[in-house]
Amino acid sequence: MRELKVDEEAKNAWYRHWVTVGLESFERELARLPQGNFCFGNTPTLADCCLVPQIFNGKRFNVDFSAMPRTMAAFESCMELPAFQRAQPSACPDNEA
Question: Domains in the chain and their CATH numbers?
């Protein structure tokens, strides 16, 4: 396998860019829906289960979430639930703190 020979900050910038593009698009979709606690209403769905890891990864790479209030509100609602708390990266036995 060939190495890309890209420095760490260039990789991080690339990742931040694409996470931001994806989540900003997601934010626009959420804005078209009625307001709820989670992505699609007041009960978590598969969309919330998929969103949470993306936010955690984005946080690892210092993504700016300030333009995503609905997305982050859904994430925060998820993180209030015990199941999501138990599944977050810091709660996993193989966590790399």
Answer: 8-91 (1.20.1050.10)
